[in-house]
Amino acid sequence: MTQASVVTSPAASPHFASPFSCTLEEGGPDAAWVRLAGEVDLATAPQLEQTLREAQRSARLIVLDLRELTFMDCRGVHVILDAARDAREVARRLVLVRGRANVDRVLTATGVCAHLEIVDLDPGEGLARALRQLAGSLFPA
Question: Is residue 52 pLDDT above 70, yes or no?
Fold first, then answer.
C-alpha cells in the first residue's frame, strides 16, 4: 500500500480537542482507504472533503474508516453524505467502517444511516484483507 497523503490539523483548543488527521492510502488499482482520527468539525471538514475528492478521482471503492474518530459534528455528516452522493453519481462506492459509539450515534440521530453503506470490521483486520473482502462484496465479478 502506498500512502497518498496525510493531512493533519492542530486542534482549536488543545486542552479539550483531539488533533485531526486524515490519511489516504491506495488499496490497489480500484480502492482507496481514508483513515480519520481525532475530530471532524467545522474547522477540519474541508480537509476531509478534499481527501475524499482525491480518493474518488483514483478509486471505484473508497473506504472511510471512522474507528479512530473521537467526535463528528453536523458539518462532518454533511461532507460524508455529499461524498456518498457524488460517488453514486459516477458509479463509485463510499463505504464507512463503523466508528465509536458516540460517532455512530451522530449518524443514527441525524437519520443518514439509510443513505450510507456502513460495515463493521475487526479492530485488528489488515487493510489489504479488508479491502479485498469489501471489493468482492461491492463489485462482484
Answer: yes
Contact 94, 52 (CB under 8 A): yes
> Strand locations in 10-110, DSSP E?
20-26, 31-40, 61-72, 93-97
Q: Nearest CA to 58 among 104, 2, 97? A: 2
Burial of 44 (0-12, 13-18, 19+ CB in 10 A): buried
Q: Which residue has the cell 486524515?
A: 22
> Domains (ranges, CATH) in the chain?
3-135 (3.30.750.24)
Return the percentage of the chain with pLDDT > 90, whole number: 67
DSSP element (H, E) containing 6: strand 3-9
